[in-house]
Amino acid sequence: MKYSCVIFDLFGTLVDNTSRDEYNLILTRMADVLGVVPKDFIGHWKGTFYDRMVGALQDTGSNILNITDHLGVEVGEEQLEEASRIRRDFTDGMMVPKPGALEALREIRKRGLKIGLISDCSSEVPLLWEKNPLSSLIDVSVFSCVEGVKKPDARIYLTACERLEVQPEECLYVGDGSSHELTGALYVYMDPVLIRDPREKDPYRIDRDSWEGKEIQSIPEVLELIL
Ligand SMILES: [Mg+2]
């Protein structure tokens, strides 16, 4: 067997990505609750992406306050809670395993391979992770907002390997290509494969890899790569 471990990305890989329209709609709803101009809020929200991903903005509330402070708007506790709830519920709603994902993970385990997760995500995700049906099938989950480092930084891949007790060369890395994650995986000598899901419509994706390497369309296809 060539691999001893499969490492997955989360959004756009094990669960769906949000679409651009849907994302803007949620941010507009948050802006409305906060009484700020949606366009301004959306601009600042997207501008704080990096700080959100590496946990410099530690929770939804501090992210929102960082923005409203910049905009010179004072918000009450209830507004803050309601806007945070919209974000949390949105994230929760996104974390539904893709068709065939749970079954494929079970089969990967049955074949004796370890499974890791490396996700560039904000604070809501680790809080919601434990109750997610994916989490019990994954040996080690590494979240950028917890580690303080995001893809494609080599450290996040190496942290996952260390905790999984595997070498990067033994890992198949599966991701939809945001955050230049496939390039990052290749850099540490993992074997990356792009998942290009034909079900996706106008996905919201940041720093997309241009990738000409191995490609699959669904999670169950991973099983063919680890034969
Ligand atoms: Mg992704």
Give the tags.
single chain; 227 residues; alpha/beta; Rossmann fold; 2 domains; six-stranded parallel β-sheet; 6 strands; elongated; binds magnesium ion
Kindly summarize this structure in a few lines:
The protein is an alpha/beta fold and 227 residues long.
Structure characterization notes:
With 227 residues, the chain is of the alpha/beta class. It has two domains: 5-16 and 96-225, HAD superfamily/HAD-like (Rossmann fold, 3-Layer(aba) Sandwich), CATH 3.40.50; 20-94. The chain contains eleven helices and six strands. The chain has helices at 20-34, 38-47, 49-53, 60-71, 77-94, 101-110, 124-129, 144-147, 154-164, 181-187, 222-225, and strands spanning 5-8, 114-119, 140-143, 171-175, 191-195, 215-216. The protein has a six-stranded parallel sheet with strand order 3-2-1-4-5-6, sandwiched between helices. Helix 10 links the parallel strand 4 and strand 5 (191-195). Helix 1 runs antiparallel to helix 5 (77-94), helix 2 packs across helix 4 and helix 4 packs across helix 5. The longest helix is centred in the middle third of the chain and has 18 residues, at 77-94. It starts with a strand and ends with a helix. The model has no long low-confidence stretch (mean pLDDT 96). Bound molecules: magnesium ion (MG). The site of magnesium ion has 7 residues, from loops. Magnesium ion binds at residues 9, 11-13, 175-176, 178.
